[in-house]
Amino acid sequence: MASLRFDFDAYPYLTADLPGIEGSIRVRPADFQVFEVPAYAPAGEGEHLFLRVEKEGLTTRRVVELIAQRLGVEEGQIGVAGLKDKHALAQQYLSLPARFEPRLKLLEDLPGVRILGWARHPHKLRLGHLAGNRFRILIRGAREPGRVEAVLRQLAERGVPNYYGPQRFGLGGQNPEKGYALVTGQKLHLSPWLRKFLVSSLQSLLFNDWLALRLRLGLFDRVVEGDVAKKHDTGGEFWVEEPERESQRALRFEISATGPLYGRKYREARGEARALEDQVLRRYGLERAHFVARRGDRRPIRVPLADWAVEAGPEGVWVSFFLPRGAYATAVLREVMKRNPELEEGWAEV
């Protein structure tokens, strides 16, 4: 059976023909800046309060804990749209019951956290309630911005490989091994949240392997018979019955193939596309039936890269871009640097 440990360096690059750039990231948290883009603006009235928060050197989960302790609110009443990296300077939105608005002054001296503003809204924030994230990242020591521009230009034309990043897999990339133990019936005494996260890590590894297989076969911006394709303009999905015609749409970046996050309720691929998915499962001795405890979903093989820019500075090269929700900046940086940019950091959220 193939190794279940995540190894980003084992995956192929879309821009393998373009040289990488030397340098380091995350030397300081402010080198890695993330700005959450909300899916909608707060209405200005309602029973919940949306906070725009800036954090540095803290996970989103830790910020929620600190706010809950300081205000005396239950953690479950605090909503978040996305989870942001600890080793970053990040701005994001949280929500809490509006009745706590008079106590917000208690957050003024919260270590590592600044409240930048707030407004009312009728509903609590939920995970996924964001359009995406804008990134501004310093590659320290880099001196060849032209190389970065060449890579980003190709990614903008063909799409960013939608790999899950190292954050998903834990220290040493070991989370999928624990997820495998859970789906194959081994007994581990873990909380429901952690069990769900570990199985999700295994699903993510299988997706990454599927994406890598498609890249190696030249099927990154093509579709085959039986693929579940996604329309980029509407988000709709459909089965591919005429691959030659639909591949022309894929080349124009109108549609993309989607890969499986196995579960009991998701649109399953057919024919040739299903055979590729089965090939990945067989590497680990797994079947779709092992994932019946999860709902399942599909994830696009690529995402668009928008609003990108490159700026040379005295400390290195700044790279800026926008990615839709669920996409990882690491997938862009590894193409630029031609290595796993987090490898030397040895960090993970969980």
Description:
Helix 2 packs across helix 7 and helix 3 (175-183) packs across helix 4 (192-216). A hairpin with a 2-residue loop joins strand 13 and strand 14. 26% of the residues lie in helices and 25% in strands. Among the domains are: 40-128, TruD, catalytic domain (Pseudouridine synthase); 164-303, TruD, insertion domain (Pseudouridine synthase, 2-Layer Sandwich). The protein starts with 31 loop residues before the first strand and ends in a 13-residue tail after the last helix. The strands form three sheets. Strands 1, 2, 3, 4, 5, 6, 13 and 14 form an eight-stranded mixed β-sheet that branches. A four-stranded antiparallel β-sheet has the order 9-8-10-11. The protein has helices spanning 60-71, 145-158, 175-183, 192-216, 243-251, 271-283, 329-337; strands at residues 32-38, 48-56, 79-80, 89-97, 113-121, 130-140, 160-161, 228-231, 237-239, 255-261, 297-300, 302-303, 306-313, 316-324. The protein has seven helices and 14 strands. The chain is an alpha+beta fold. Mean pLDDT is 94; it is low at 344-350.
